[in-house]
Amino acid sequence: MEEKTLIFGHKNPDTDTICSSMVKQILCEKEGNTNVKAVRLGNVNKETKYALDYLQMEAPEFIEKVEEGQKVILVDHNEFNQSADGIENANILEVVDHHRICNFQTTDPLYYTARPFGCTSTILYQEFVEKGIEIAKTEAVLMASAIISDTLLLKSPTTTKFDEKALVELGRIAGIDINKYGLDLLKAGTDLDDFSEKELIDLDAKKFESKGVKCVIAQVNTVSIPDVLKRKEKLEEEMNNAIAENGTDLFVLAITDILNSNSQIIALGNRVDIIEKTVKLEDNMALLEGVVSRKKQLLPMVENNI
Ligand code: MN
Ligand code: MN
């Protein structure tokens, strides 16, 4: 049998990355392409585990890198520095994504679906609908979980009317109370006790480089910012270690209160001046009211000031 096409999202996988890769596999199979396999590039977080446990499903298999010529489908990302090691020499057949297109190039033609929605699973939901393929409970729960996660239960400014419509319909198919299930799912992701500070700053970290400035924006969700700040000293120590190790110019950790939709940021590095163009840091910190989205709020705030 021909080698399977691997489907995966970004490193430091979140719920959208894991669920969308699993849903894309299901969608391919329902279309008759069974030679596909969802995989992951990192550990499954607690929020995602909550969704998988709800469905009594196993997480996709972990892979470290892709071999030259490996056929792949990318979901929930396109930037090579967020993708599998070896992606430059893989054969990218398709991308389904809701991020900016950046540091991306292929030698061969491909399918590329980019829609500026709040979640990759909203795009996949539309694919099911447009292709007239029935959505079963399993993929409905997976897609609903991804949308809840990426849009913080439709409260993030990244949310579009398409996400809202998809989530309502998926909740109906899945037979779940979206608000109750959604809050339980998000809360499961805020249990940070088992993580060391080193793990916390890496859990959901995205790296990017702009005009030669190396940045990291990491994010953790919580229901109590003060709880997380009890660990500030140790968090800063680990951030400084990571800065020294990777030559990072600016490391921003956003501690996001999912109930009140605010973020406390801790910013370190030799380019904190970039942050201070927007907000004054006190003790390396600032509270950003109404800020919950890295993509729509934090990233532009950093990038536009470099
Ligand atoms: Mn993601
Ligand atoms: Mn996403």
Ligands bound to this protein structure: manganese (II) ion
Number of helical elements: 11
Uncertain residue ranges: none
Described by strand count, sense and barrel closure, the largest sheet is: 6 strands, parallel
Give a description of the structure:
Helices cover 39% and strands 21% of the residues. With 306 residues, the chain is of the alpha/beta class. It folds into 2 domains: 5-187, inorganic pyrophosphatase (n-terminal core) (Alpha-Beta Complex), CATH 3.90.1640.10; 197-303, Diaminopimelate Epimerase, Chain A, domain 1 (Roll). A 6-stranded parallel β-sheet has the order 3-2-1-4-5-6. It has a 5-stranded mixed β-sheet with strand order 7-8-9-10-11. Helix 1 links the parallel strand 1 and strand 2 (36-40). Helix 1 packs parallel to helix 3 and helix 2 packs antiparallel against helix 4. The mean pLDDT is 96. The structure holds manganese (II) ion (2 copies). One manganese (II) ion is lined by residues 16, 76, 98, 119-120, 150. One manganese (II) ion (MN) binds next to helix 1.
List the helices and strands and how they pair.
Blueprint: E1 5-8, H1 15-30, E2 36-40, H2 46-55, E3 61-62, E4 71-75, E5 91-97, E6 111-114, H3 120-131, H4 137-151, H5 161-174, H6 178-188, H7 197-203, E7 205-210, E8 213-222, H8 225-229, H9 232-246, E9 250-257, E10 262-268, H10 273-276, E11 285-289, H11 294-303
Parallel strand pairs: 1-2, 1-4, 2-3, 4-5, 5-6, 8-9
Antiparallel strand pairs: 7-8, 9-10, 10-11
The chain binds manganese (II) ion (2 copies).
Residues 16, 76, 98, 119-120, 150 line the site of one manganese (II) ion.
